[in-house]
Amino acid sequence: MPYTPELAERMRLALSSRSDITEKKMFGGYCWMLNGNMICGVEVGRYMFRVGKDLESLALSRPGATPMDITGKPMRGFIWVDGQHATGAALQQWIALAEQYVGTLPPK
C-alpha cells in the first residue's frame, strides 16, 4: 500500500523510544509490530491502528477515525485515522489505544 513519507516519519518519531516495537516494510508501505503483532501502519494521508473489536466503537467515536475497508467489507478491529487528526499527543493517544488490545496478544 502506498504511503505518505511524512506520516511514516511522524510515526517513527512517536515510537523511537520503544524497544518493544519494530518497523516492518509491508504492502509497499510500513507497519509497526508490538512483540511481533501488528499495532499500526501508514498509508497515503492516514494511519491504520489495530484496536480490536472491543475498542472499535470507542476508536470510531474519535475525530478522524473511519472503519478500515479495503475490499468492500470492513475489517473488524482495524481503523483508519486521518493524518491531520493524529499529531503530537493525539498520535500518542492512538498508539496507547491500539496497545490496549495488541498488548494482550501473545508474542510471535
From TrEMBL:
It holds the Pfam family TfoX_N. The keyword Membrane does not apply. Residues 15-99 form the TfoX N-terminal domain. GO terms for molecular function: methyltransferase activity. It comes from the Bacteria. This is RNA methyltransferase. InterPro entries: TfoX_N. The keyword Coiled coil does not apply. Keywords: Methyltransferase, Transferase. One of its GO terms (biological process) is methylation. SUPFAM superfamilies: YgaC/TfoX-N like.
